[in-house]
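Researcher: Quick sanity check before group meeting.
Model: Go ahead. Protein one:
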Amino acid sequence: MLLLSHLSGAGGTISISYCSRRFLTSVLPVFLLLAASLNLAGQAASPGYRENSAQPSSSGANTSRTRTVTHAKPAVPNNGQPLTAHEKFNVALDYTLSPLEFGAAFAKAGITEVVSPSRRYGRSAGAFAEQFGAAYADEATGNMFRQFIYPTLFHQDPRYFRKGHGSMSSRLEYAFSRVFITPSDSGKTEFNWSVVLGSTSSRVISNFYYPPAARSAGITATDIGLSLLYQGIANSFQEFMPALNRRLSHRIRIGP
Protein backbone atom coordinates (compact mmCIF):
# COMPACT_ATOMS: atom_id res chain seq x y z
CA MET A 1 0.00 0.00 0.00
CA LEU A 2 1.23 3.43 -0.89
CA LEU A 3 2.34 5.41 2.16
CA LEU A 4 0.92 8.94 2.31
CA SER A 5 3.54 11.60 2.91
CA HIS A 6 2.84 15.22 3.65
CA LEU A 7 4.64 18.50 3.27
CA SER A 8 3.93 21.03 5.96
CA GLY A 9 3.32 24.60 4.88
CA ALA A 10 2.01 27.88 6.17
CA GLY A 11 -1.42 27.23 4.70
CA GLY A 12 -1.74 23.64 5.90
CA THR A 13 -0.58 20.32 4.47
CA ILE A 14 -0.21 19.12 0.91
CA SER A 15 -0.63 15.44 0.17
CA ILE A 16 2.07 14.15 -2.17
CA SER A 17 -0.07 11.17 -3.18
CA TYR A 18 -2.96 13.53 -4.00
CA CYS A 19 -0.68 15.67 -6.17
CA SER A 20 0.66 12.56 -7.95
CA ARG A 21 -2.86 11.38 -8.64
CA ARG A 22 -3.86 14.78 -9.98
CA PHE A 23 -0.78 14.83 -12.20
CA LEU A 24 -1.50 11.44 -13.75
CA THR A 25 -5.20 12.07 -14.28
CA SER A 26 -4.96 15.67 -15.47
CA VAL A 27 -1.50 16.40 -16.87
CA LEU A 28 -0.83 13.06 -18.58
CA PRO A 29 -3.50 13.50 -21.32
CA VAL A 30 -2.16 16.98 -22.08
CA PHE A 31 1.38 15.58 -22.27
CA LEU A 32 0.25 12.89 -24.71
CA LEU A 33 -1.44 15.46 -26.93
CA LEU A 34 1.75 17.53 -26.95
CA ALA A 35 3.79 14.42 -27.77
CA ALA A 36 1.42 13.68 -30.65
CA SER A 37 1.92 17.16 -32.08
CA LEU A 38 5.69 16.89 -31.87
CA ASN A 39 5.58 13.39 -33.33
CA LEU A 40 3.45 14.41 -36.30
CA ALA A 41 5.69 17.40 -36.94
CA GLY A 42 8.75 15.16 -37.12
CA GLN A 43 7.30 12.33 -39.20
CA ALA A 44 8.13 13.82 -42.57
CA ALA A 45 11.79 14.18 -41.66
CA SER A 46 12.14 10.84 -39.90
CA PRO A 47 13.97 8.10 -41.85
CA GLY A 48 12.23 5.44 -39.76
CA TYR A 49 8.73 6.48 -40.78
CA ARG A 50 7.95 4.83 -44.10
CA GLU A 51 5.18 5.70 -46.52
CA ASN A 52 4.23 3.82 -49.64
CA SER A 53 2.13 5.05 -52.51
CA ALA A 54 -1.13 3.22 -52.90
CA GLN A 55 -1.58 0.88 -55.84
CA PRO A 56 -2.94 2.48 -59.02
CA SER A 57 -6.66 2.12 -59.55
CA SER A 58 -8.21 0.53 -62.61
CA SER A 59 -8.38 3.94 -64.26
CA GLY A 60 -4.65 4.38 -63.88
CA ALA A 61 -4.84 7.11 -61.24
CA ASN A 62 -3.01 6.72 -57.96
CA THR A 63 -4.98 6.89 -54.75
CA SER A 64 -3.79 8.80 -51.68
CA ARG A 65 -0.61 7.83 -49.85
CA THR A 66 -0.98 5.25 -47.09
CA ARG A 67 1.09 4.54 -44.01
CA THR A 68 3.09 1.34 -43.69
CA VAL A 69 2.46 1.11 -39.94
CA THR A 70 -0.90 -0.51 -39.25
CA HIS A 71 -2.35 -2.17 -36.19
CA ALA A 72 -3.68 -5.31 -37.83
CA LYS A 73 -2.17 -7.16 -40.79
CA PRO A 74 -2.43 -10.65 -42.28
CA ALA A 75 -0.68 -13.36 -40.27
CA VAL A 76 2.46 -13.18 -42.42
CA PRO A 77 4.06 -9.73 -42.92
CA ASN A 78 4.52 -8.86 -46.58
CA ASN A 79 7.65 -6.72 -46.50
CA GLY A 80 9.55 -8.66 -43.81
CA GLN A 81 10.93 -5.43 -42.35
CA PRO A 82 10.78 -4.93 -38.57
CA LEU A 83 9.35 -1.75 -37.14
CA THR A 84 11.79 0.86 -35.94
CA ALA A 85 11.51 2.21 -32.39
CA HIS A 86 9.99 5.37 -33.86
CA GLU A 87 7.31 3.35 -35.65
CA LYS A 88 6.53 1.38 -32.49
CA PHE A 89 6.04 4.69 -30.73
CA ASN A 90 3.66 5.70 -33.54
CA VAL A 91 1.63 2.53 -33.01
CA ALA A 92 1.36 3.20 -29.25
CA LEU A 93 0.47 6.85 -29.82
CA ASP A 94 -2.15 6.03 -32.45
CA TYR A 95 -3.84 3.64 -30.04
CA THR A 96 -3.69 6.13 -27.18
CA LEU A 97 -5.13 9.06 -29.15
CA SER A 98 -7.79 6.97 -30.89
CA PRO A 99 -11.39 8.02 -30.17
CA LEU A 100 -12.01 4.38 -29.26
CA GLU A 101 -9.61 4.73 -26.34
CA PHE A 102 -11.48 7.74 -25.00
CA GLY A 103 -14.73 5.79 -25.38
CA ALA A 104 -13.23 2.78 -23.62
CA ALA A 105 -12.02 4.99 -20.76
CA PHE A 106 -15.46 6.59 -20.43
CA ALA A 107 -17.13 3.16 -20.38
CA LYS A 108 -14.61 1.84 -17.84
CA ALA A 109 -15.22 4.85 -15.59
CA GLY A 110 -18.98 4.26 -15.75
CA ILE A 111 -18.68 0.54 -15.04
CA THR A 112 -16.33 1.26 -12.13
CA GLU A 113 -18.91 3.56 -10.58
CA VAL A 114 -21.45 0.73 -10.61
CA VAL A 115 -19.57 -2.49 -9.87
CA SER A 116 -16.31 -1.49 -8.16
CA PRO A 117 -16.88 0.65 -5.05
CA SER A 118 -13.24 0.30 -3.95
CA ARG A 119 -12.12 2.39 -6.96
CA ARG A 120 -14.60 5.21 -6.62
CA TYR A 121 -13.34 8.74 -6.08
CA GLY A 122 -16.81 9.89 -5.06
CA ARG A 123 -20.27 10.50 -6.46
CA SER A 124 -19.98 14.06 -7.79
CA ALA A 125 -19.41 15.13 -11.39
CA GLY A 126 -15.86 16.12 -10.45
CA ALA A 127 -15.25 12.68 -8.98
CA PHE A 128 -16.46 11.04 -12.21
CA ALA A 129 -14.10 13.28 -14.19
CA GLU A 130 -11.28 12.05 -11.97
CA GLN A 131 -12.47 8.47 -12.50
CA PHE A 132 -12.37 9.03 -16.25
CA GLY A 133 -8.87 10.48 -15.99
CA ALA A 134 -7.69 7.43 -14.07
CA ALA A 135 -9.26 5.07 -16.62
CA TYR A 136 -7.63 6.95 -19.49
CA ALA A 137 -4.28 6.93 -17.67
CA ASP A 138 -4.65 3.12 -17.51
CA GLU A 139 -5.16 2.99 -21.27
CA ALA A 140 -2.30 5.38 -22.02
CA THR A 141 0.32 3.73 -19.83
CA GLY A 142 -0.76 0.28 -21.01
CA ASN A 143 -0.40 1.26 -24.65
CA MET A 144 3.03 2.80 -24.12
CA PHE A 145 4.30 -0.26 -22.29
CA ARG A 146 2.70 -2.87 -24.60
CA GLN A 147 3.24 -1.21 -27.98
CA PHE A 148 6.43 0.80 -27.51
CA ILE A 149 8.62 0.35 -24.42
CA TYR A 150 8.71 -3.43 -24.04
CA PRO A 151 8.54 -4.19 -27.80
CA THR A 152 11.61 -1.98 -28.20
CA LEU A 153 13.46 -3.59 -25.27
CA PHE A 154 12.59 -7.18 -26.26
CA HIS A 155 12.70 -6.58 -30.05
CA GLN A 156 9.12 -7.73 -30.57
CA ASP A 157 6.48 -6.62 -33.05
CA PRO A 158 3.61 -4.88 -31.20
CA ARG A 159 1.09 -5.29 -34.02
CA TYR A 160 -1.61 -7.91 -34.22
CA PHE A 161 -1.28 -10.04 -37.36
CA ARG A 162 -4.65 -11.41 -38.46
CA LYS A 163 -5.15 -15.05 -39.33
CA GLY A 164 -7.91 -14.08 -41.76
CA HIS A 165 -9.16 -17.60 -42.62
CA GLY A 166 -10.57 -20.75 -41.05
CA SER A 167 -13.54 -21.34 -38.77
CA MET A 168 -14.72 -18.76 -36.26
CA SER A 169 -13.59 -20.91 -33.32
CA SER A 170 -10.10 -21.39 -34.76
CA ARG A 171 -9.76 -17.66 -35.39
CA LEU A 172 -10.94 -16.83 -31.88
CA GLU A 173 -8.45 -19.32 -30.47
CA TYR A 174 -5.73 -17.70 -32.57
CA ALA A 175 -6.70 -14.18 -31.45
CA PHE A 176 -6.56 -15.05 -27.76
CA SER A 177 -3.33 -17.01 -28.17
CA ARG A 178 -1.64 -13.86 -29.51
CA VAL A 179 -1.86 -12.42 -26.01
CA PHE A 180 0.94 -14.84 -25.08
CA ILE A 181 2.56 -15.46 -28.47
CA THR A 182 4.01 -12.81 -30.80
CA PRO A 183 6.55 -12.49 -33.61
CA SER A 184 9.94 -11.01 -32.82
CA ASP A 185 11.54 -8.38 -35.01
CA SER A 186 13.49 -11.19 -36.69
CA GLY A 187 10.26 -13.09 -37.48
CA LYS A 188 10.58 -15.83 -34.85
CA THR A 189 7.58 -16.78 -32.71
CA GLU A 190 8.19 -16.23 -29.00
CA PHE A 191 6.50 -15.52 -25.67
CA ASN A 192 4.73 -12.15 -25.69
CA TRP A 193 6.70 -10.41 -22.96
CA SER A 194 5.49 -7.04 -24.25
CA VAL A 195 1.81 -7.62 -23.49
CA VAL A 196 2.24 -9.60 -20.26
CA LEU A 197 4.81 -7.27 -18.70
CA GLY A 198 3.10 -4.22 -20.19
CA SER A 199 -0.24 -5.05 -18.59
CA THR A 200 1.50 -5.80 -15.29
CA SER A 201 3.52 -2.58 -15.30
CA SER A 202 0.50 -0.47 -16.15
CA ARG A 203 -1.53 -1.92 -13.29
CA VAL A 204 1.29 -1.50 -10.77
CA ILE A 205 1.67 2.16 -11.76
CA SER A 206 -2.07 2.67 -11.30
CA ASN A 207 -1.61 2.03 -7.58
CA PHE A 208 -0.15 5.55 -7.38
CA TYR A 209 -3.46 7.17 -8.29
CA TYR A 210 -6.25 4.71 -7.44
CA PRO A 211 -7.88 4.97 -3.98
CA PRO A 212 -6.11 3.00 -1.20
CA ALA A 213 -8.88 0.38 -1.10
CA ALA A 214 -8.02 -0.65 -4.68
CA ARG A 215 -4.30 -1.22 -4.08
CA SER A 216 -4.30 -4.65 -2.46
CA ALA A 217 -2.27 -7.49 -3.96
CA GLY A 218 -5.41 -9.50 -4.68
CA ILE A 219 -7.15 -6.69 -6.57
CA THR A 220 -3.95 -5.88 -8.48
CA ALA A 221 -3.50 -9.53 -9.57
CA THR A 222 -7.16 -9.76 -10.62
CA ASP A 223 -6.84 -6.57 -12.67
CA ILE A 224 -3.76 -7.89 -14.45
CA GLY A 225 -5.70 -11.00 -15.44
CA LEU A 226 -8.63 -8.89 -16.65
CA SER A 227 -6.25 -6.72 -18.66
CA LEU A 228 -4.92 -9.79 -20.48
CA LEU A 229 -8.50 -10.93 -21.11
CA TYR A 230 -9.33 -7.51 -22.60
CA GLN A 231 -6.30 -7.84 -24.87
CA GLY A 232 -7.70 -11.11 -26.21
CA ILE A 233 -11.07 -9.44 -26.83
CA ALA A 234 -9.35 -6.53 -28.59
CA ASN A 235 -7.46 -9.01 -30.80
CA SER A 236 -10.76 -10.69 -31.67
CA PHE A 237 -12.23 -7.38 -32.80
CA GLN A 238 -9.23 -6.81 -35.05
CA GLU A 239 -9.50 -10.35 -36.41
CA PHE A 240 -13.13 -10.03 -37.51
CA MET A 241 -13.52 -6.28 -38.09
CA PRO A 242 -12.54 -6.32 -41.81
CA ALA A 243 -15.21 -8.97 -42.56
CA LEU A 244 -17.77 -7.03 -40.55
CA ASN A 245 -16.94 -3.84 -42.42
CA ARG A 246 -17.36 -5.62 -45.75
CA ARG A 247 -20.78 -6.95 -44.76
CA LEU A 248 -21.91 -3.53 -43.61
CA SER A 249 -20.64 -1.89 -46.80
CA HIS A 250 -22.66 -4.37 -48.91
CA ARG A 251 -25.82 -3.61 -46.97
CA ILE A 252 -25.46 0.17 -47.00
CA ARG A 253 -26.10 1.80 -50.33
CA ILE A 254 -25.38 5.46 -50.84
CA GLY A 255 -27.56 7.10 -53.50
CA PRO A 256 -26.31 9.57 -56.14
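Researcher: Fine. The other one?
Model: Protein two, sequence then structure:
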Amino acid sequence: MAEGTERGGAAGPGYRPTRITPMWLAHHYPEDYDRCVRIGRSHVCRRCLALYPLTFAVMALCLVIQPGRAVELGALAVLSLPAVVELVLEQLGVLRYSPRRQVAVTLSLAIGLGAGLAAYLDDQLDAAFWAIVILYATVCLGAVIVGRMRTPPEPTGRERHR
Protein backbone atom coordinates (compact mmCIF):
# COMPACT_ATOMS: atom_id res chain seq x y z
CA MET A 1 0.00 0.00 0.00
CA ALA A 2 1.04 3.57 -0.54
CA GLU A 3 2.36 5.55 2.39
CA GLY A 4 -0.47 6.98 4.46
CA THR A 5 -3.25 4.89 2.91
CA GLU A 6 -3.18 1.92 5.25
CA ARG A 7 -5.25 3.66 7.93
CA GLY A 8 -7.68 5.96 6.21
CA GLY A 9 -5.44 8.25 4.16
CA ALA A 10 -3.08 11.09 4.98
CA ALA A 11 -5.65 12.99 7.02
CA GLY A 12 -7.14 9.90 8.66
CA PRO A 13 -7.22 9.67 12.47
CA GLY A 14 -4.72 6.82 12.67
CA TYR A 15 -2.28 8.14 10.10
CA ARG A 16 1.39 7.72 10.96
CA PRO A 17 3.84 8.41 8.12
CA THR A 18 6.62 5.91 7.65
CA ARG A 19 9.18 8.72 7.60
CA ILE A 20 9.39 12.37 8.60
CA THR A 21 9.95 14.95 5.87
CA PRO A 22 13.06 17.14 6.29
CA MET A 23 12.39 20.39 8.13
CA TRP A 24 13.30 22.61 5.16
CA LEU A 25 10.37 21.15 3.18
CA ALA A 26 7.76 20.88 5.92
CA HIS A 27 8.21 22.49 9.30
CA HIS A 28 5.17 20.54 10.52
CA TYR A 29 5.14 17.43 12.64
CA PRO A 30 3.48 14.36 11.12
CA GLU A 31 0.20 15.01 12.94
CA ASP A 32 -0.03 18.33 11.06
CA TYR A 33 0.76 16.98 7.60
CA ASP A 34 -2.80 17.92 6.58
CA ARG A 35 -1.25 21.39 6.20
CA CYS A 36 1.11 20.03 3.57
CA VAL A 37 0.93 18.77 0.01
CA ARG A 38 2.66 15.61 -1.11
CA ILE A 39 5.35 15.95 -3.75
CA GLY A 40 6.78 12.54 -4.45
CA ARG A 41 7.51 10.99 -1.08
CA SER A 42 7.87 14.30 0.75
CA HIS A 43 5.43 16.59 2.50
CA VAL A 44 5.84 20.26 1.60
CA CYS A 45 4.22 23.03 3.62
CA ARG A 46 1.24 24.31 1.63
CA ARG A 47 1.62 27.90 2.84
CA CYS A 48 5.35 28.02 2.09
CA LEU A 49 4.80 26.52 -1.35
CA ALA A 50 2.38 29.33 -2.18
CA LEU A 51 4.17 32.09 -0.26
CA TYR A 52 7.83 32.11 -1.22
CA PRO A 53 7.81 31.89 -5.04
CA LEU A 54 5.17 34.62 -5.37
CA THR A 55 6.81 36.78 -2.67
CA PHE A 56 10.15 36.82 -4.46
CA ALA A 57 8.53 37.36 -7.87
CA VAL A 58 6.59 40.38 -6.54
CA MET A 59 9.70 41.71 -4.80
CA ALA A 60 11.69 41.49 -8.05
CA LEU A 61 8.86 43.13 -9.99
CA CYS A 62 8.67 46.00 -7.47
CA LEU A 63 12.42 46.49 -7.65
CA VAL A 64 12.15 46.78 -11.44
CA ILE A 65 9.03 48.94 -11.83
CA GLN A 66 9.47 50.85 -8.53
CA PRO A 67 5.84 51.68 -7.69
CA GLY A 68 6.92 53.87 -4.75
CA ARG A 69 7.24 53.43 -1.01
CA ALA A 70 3.65 54.38 -0.26
CA VAL A 71 2.33 51.69 -2.61
CA GLU A 72 4.78 49.08 -1.35
CA LEU A 73 4.11 49.77 2.33
CA GLY A 74 0.37 50.08 1.70
CA ALA A 75 0.43 46.68 0.00
CA LEU A 76 2.38 45.22 2.93
CA ALA A 77 -0.13 46.57 5.46
CA VAL A 78 -3.36 45.83 3.57
CA LEU A 79 -2.57 42.60 1.74
CA SER A 80 -0.94 40.95 4.78
CA LEU A 81 -3.92 41.67 7.00
CA PRO A 82 -6.15 38.75 5.82
CA ALA A 83 -3.43 36.25 6.79
CA VAL A 84 -3.04 37.90 10.19
CA VAL A 85 -6.81 37.79 10.77
CA GLU A 86 -6.97 34.15 9.66
CA LEU A 87 -4.13 33.14 11.97
CA VAL A 88 -5.67 34.96 14.94
CA LEU A 89 -9.14 33.47 14.40
CA GLU A 90 -7.74 29.98 13.88
CA GLN A 91 -5.56 30.19 17.00
CA LEU A 92 -8.52 31.39 19.07
CA GLY A 93 -10.70 28.53 17.83
CA VAL A 94 -13.13 30.71 15.87
CA LEU A 95 -12.11 29.20 12.51
CA ARG A 96 -11.13 25.66 11.64
CA TYR A 97 -8.20 25.06 9.32
CA SER A 98 -9.13 25.23 5.64
CA PRO A 99 -6.55 24.52 2.91
CA ARG A 100 -8.42 26.64 0.35
CA ARG A 101 -8.72 29.62 2.67
CA GLN A 102 -5.08 29.21 3.67
CA VAL A 103 -3.91 29.38 0.06
CA ALA A 104 -6.18 32.35 -0.70
CA VAL A 105 -4.91 34.44 2.21
CA THR A 106 -1.35 33.29 1.53
CA LEU A 107 -1.47 34.57 -2.05
CA SER A 108 -2.60 37.96 -0.73
CA LEU A 109 0.13 37.81 1.93
CA ALA A 110 2.76 36.95 -0.69
CA ILE A 111 1.94 40.01 -2.78
CA GLY A 112 2.05 42.28 0.28
CA LEU A 113 5.20 40.66 1.61
CA GLY A 114 6.95 40.91 -1.75
CA ALA A 115 6.13 44.61 -1.99
CA GLY A 116 7.21 45.10 1.63
CA LEU A 117 10.52 43.35 1.06
CA ALA A 118 11.20 45.63 -1.90
CA ALA A 119 10.59 48.64 0.38
CA TYR A 120 12.85 47.06 3.01
CA LEU A 121 15.67 46.61 0.49
CA ASP A 122 15.47 50.32 -0.30
CA ASP A 123 15.65 51.35 3.37
CA GLN A 124 16.25 48.73 6.06
CA LEU A 125 15.57 51.23 8.86
CA ASP A 126 12.24 52.57 7.56
CA ALA A 127 10.06 53.16 10.62
CA ALA A 128 6.78 52.50 8.78
CA PHE A 129 8.01 49.12 7.50
CA TRP A 130 9.14 48.04 10.96
CA ALA A 131 5.95 49.34 12.61
CA ILE A 132 3.83 47.13 10.33
CA VAL A 133 6.08 44.10 10.84
CA ILE A 134 6.27 44.48 14.62
CA LEU A 135 2.55 45.17 14.99
CA TYR A 136 1.49 42.13 12.94
CA ALA A 137 4.12 39.88 14.55
CA THR A 138 2.99 40.94 18.02
CA VAL A 139 -0.67 40.30 17.20
CA CYS A 140 0.14 36.86 15.75
CA LEU A 141 2.40 35.88 18.63
CA GLY A 142 -0.21 37.03 21.14
CA ALA A 143 -2.88 34.96 19.40
CA VAL A 144 -0.67 31.87 19.42
CA ILE A 145 0.09 32.27 23.12
CA VAL A 146 -3.55 32.88 24.05
CA GLY A 147 -4.66 30.00 21.82
CA ARG A 148 -2.22 27.61 23.50
CA MET A 149 -3.33 28.74 26.95
CA ARG A 150 -7.04 28.36 26.10
CA THR A 151 -6.95 24.73 25.05
CA PRO A 152 -4.68 21.92 26.13
CA PRO A 153 -2.61 20.49 23.29
CA GLU A 154 -4.04 17.43 21.61
CA PRO A 155 -2.17 14.23 22.40
CA THR A 156 0.32 13.22 19.75
CA GLY A 157 0.67 9.79 18.17
CA ARG A 158 2.19 7.79 21.04
CA GLU A 159 0.13 9.54 23.71
CA ARG A 160 -3.14 8.80 21.88
CA HIS A 161 -2.50 5.07 21.92
CA ARG A 162 -1.59 4.68 25.59
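Researcher: One line on it for the slide.
Model: The chain is about 60% helix and 5% strand.
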